[in-house]
User: Fold this.
Amino acid sequence: MSIDDMAVYIANLGDYVEGGVKGAWFRFPLNEEEIRERIGLNGRYEEYTIHDTENFPMKIEEYTSIDELNRIYEQLEELPDYLLDDLDS
Assistant:
């Protein structure tokens, strides 16, 4: 596993509830401002949800915070390659 290949699909929750599909794939580290811009978070829509992950070594909840995702990423960065490879198995 390479942490450079990890990604999450983040969707605009309000738009999704209304039947829309504003969302995008993001690579780590996550930039909150970029996420807000790309999925249309603003005064009307303020919440997001995680709909999918790619090459992420653990299950995460749909309402996991951006800060928590970045914290997990930072911890994974510290692991030696041989341990990262074991996470793929």
Remarks:
- The mean pLDDT is 90.
- Strands lie at 7-12, 23-27, 48-54.
- The CA atoms of residues 57 and 87 lie 6 Å apart.
